[in-house]
Predict the structure.
Amino acid sequence: MKRRHFLSLSGLVSGACLIPAGIARRIHAAALQPAGPLILAPEDALTEIFAQDTGYGFHLYLGNPDAEPDYPTLREFIESKGFDPYDDADLRRYAIEWRGYEEDFIEEEEGAIEELNGELDDPIDGGERDHWMDWDFESRQSPMAQAYHYLTDLPLHNLDDDVGTGQGLGDLSFIEGDRPGSNLTYCSADSLQALASLQHRLNELKEGVRIRIV
């Protein structure tokens, strides 16, 4: 499990904090009001990050958290595993390695590869879908994983800012595998103040992203 925190304003060195002191004081003061921290999202946002309240923080999603997975076709899945779906010899190797076919069975059953060819444009199912959900979807394709990778690719640290007031505004946690054997990849914010701070930095970077709490 990997974890990173970077929204606290108690930075250890100059340039380590994310939010300038003046903005930090405004977010901290707003947090004391009944309405909570003011999240100044752009009105003309092109993309939304959904922040889903878990009761102990917020999980972040790039896009609708309830969206159905967009399953790849069998052809796309085969290609992603390094096989050529247009080559019968490669399809034979795929059938042996991924579907557990015996080589003798493929030789005896002349229609085995033809049957596989007939499935190439269908969405994956069965063991292939299970594998894709456990590995590709949870680590890269899910809305949670996409939010993780999007945010880790941004320069969220503002290296031009001085150390803030020391007021903790919360943390973002970046998780790759929440338990042994898990590929679940996600980012979470531990407070509304952390979301307000993140929205401020996204605005600074002119990302055109709105954080929506759901």
